[in-house]
Specification:
This protein is an alpha/beta fold. It folds into two domains: about 260 residues, Type I PLP-dependent aspartate aminotransferase-like (Major domain) (Aspartate Aminotransferase, domain 2, 3-Layer(aba) Sandwich); about 120 residues, Aspartate Aminotransferase, domain 1, CATH 3.90.1150. It is about 45% helix and about 15% strand. The chain has 13 helices and eleven strands. A hairpin with a 2-residue loop joins strand 8 and strand 9. Helix 12 packs across helix 13. The chain is globular. The N and C termini lie far apart (about 65 Å).
């Protein structure tokens, strides 16, 4: 529909229907986040632009322009790379981007965070924002949002949550408690094209107080004077980076009207249940180990036979992933966690079944036997040498 009618979502005058749907859908998302009536936001192309939109407006809200060069942002080692990319685009240097170590569960270490803030304050720097993650890409873990919110409140910092993946839990009655303290975030990123089952591109950036969006992005070019907003109308060009923008909210709005929130709430646990089943299967297999338990439909594991080095185990797990890709039955890629190569399954597709997962695990286990015959002799020579 949006391709056929090609509405231009820049002003209310040009696309009032699209603007109305966007406003209504954003308000629904804000309610799921627990935000007050002052909240607002807009649809953007994806999490990268959503993070950039939020971070730039946050800096404007927290710092004078003369303080930009001394401002410091804090994020964990597991934060999405789009956050660092956004900060680089904003002109921050490496010294202004403070990476906070993670705890054993790969969540931002709140104690280390506060120590870093205190140290920077003592050095005369200008800490102004903490970026937490609700659902990291590697493991699905959620940073300790309540603790981070308290630290931000104590030090007067902006609290941003990248929930591009994990904010989905907010629509689930069963799991909405997982991203606790999201309601305390000053800004929140949420990708509907991830776990709200939308096609690309359908992402949102939400603010507890929408005034900060307009304060930074609003402009008044003379050729748009006739399209000025009145009353409760919103010209979304004044709230974000884009001027040319499609009507991205229509598909999510139609999904909500068609399925209803109760059915969407029931759809979310499917992926979580599947990864929990995956974890249970792997734990019962000899020579396999769970690296990070099932969290938000993501689980990490590896084949770790005895008698070979960790480096050789890394090589073996990479080979297993490659064989699965060649097989074509399932896409099981690798990532790096705690210095080791691991296999990662993320199972949020509604048509994925427990049988699909079982066959995937069985295929991987079959390939371990084949690969051991091909590679273990070389490993043995290396070990004996």
């Amino acid at each position: 529909m949006t391709n056929a009618y090609n509405p231009h979502g820049v002003t209310w005058m040009e696309s009032s229907a699209a603007g109305c749907l966007e406003q209504e859908t954003v308000e629904w998302l804000c309610r799921q986040a627990g935000y007050p009536k002052t909240a607002g936001g807009l649809f953007v192309s994806g999490g990268s632009i959503a993070n950039l939109t939020a971070l730039a407006a946050a800096r404007h809200a927290m710092l004078a322009e003369t303080e930009y060069s001394s401002g410091v942002v804090y994020l964990s080692e597991q934060a999405h790379f789009s956050v660092i990319k956004a900060l680089r685009i904003m002109g921050l240097t490496g010294e202004q981007i403070h990476m906070i170590p993670c705890d054993d569960s790969l969540r931002m270490d709140a104690f280390q965070l506060e120590q870093a803030i205190l140290q920077d304050e003592k050095a005369g720097k200008k800490p102004f924002m903490v970026v937490a993650t609700a659902g990291t890409t590697n493991t699905g873990c959620i940073d300790p949002l309540s603790q981070i919110a308290g630290i931000c409140s104590s030090h007067g910092l902006w609290f941003h949550v990248d929930g591009a993946y994990g904010a989905f839990a907010l629509v689930s009655e069963k799991y909405r408690h997982l991203p606790e303290a999201v309601a305390q975030a000053d800004s929140l990123v949420w990708d509907a094209h991830k776990w709200l089952f939308q096609t690309y591109a359908c992402s949102t950036v939400l603010f507890r107080d929408r005034k900060y969006l307009a304060a930074f992005y609003s402009s008044d070019p003379e050729y748009l004077w006739d399209a000025a907003a009145e009353n409760a109308e919103i010209n979304y060009r004044e709230w974000g980076i884009e001027l040319t923008r499609p009507a991205r909210s229509l598909k999510l709005w139609l999904t909500l009207q068609t399925l209803g929130t109760d059915q969407i709430s029931d759809m979310v646990p499917h992926g979580i249940d599947l990864t929990q089943q995956t974890e249970s299967m792997v734990r019962n297999m000899p020579e396999w180990e769970i690296v990070t338990p099932a969290q938000l439909a993501i689980v990490n594991f590896r084949y770790a036979p005895q008698g070979i080095s960790p480096e050789q185990q890394d090589e073996l797990n990479t080979a297993i992933s490659q064989r699965m890709m060649e097989d074509g039955f399932a896409c099981v890629l690798t990532t790096r966690l705690k210095g080791r190569t691991v296999l990662r399954i993320c199972s949020i597709h509604l048509e994925t079944t427990e049988e699909d997962i079982r066959y995937t695990i069985q295929r991987m286990d079959k390939y371990t036997r084949i690969l051991k015959e091909e590679l273990v002799p070389n490993f043995s020579v290396t070990i004996n040498a």
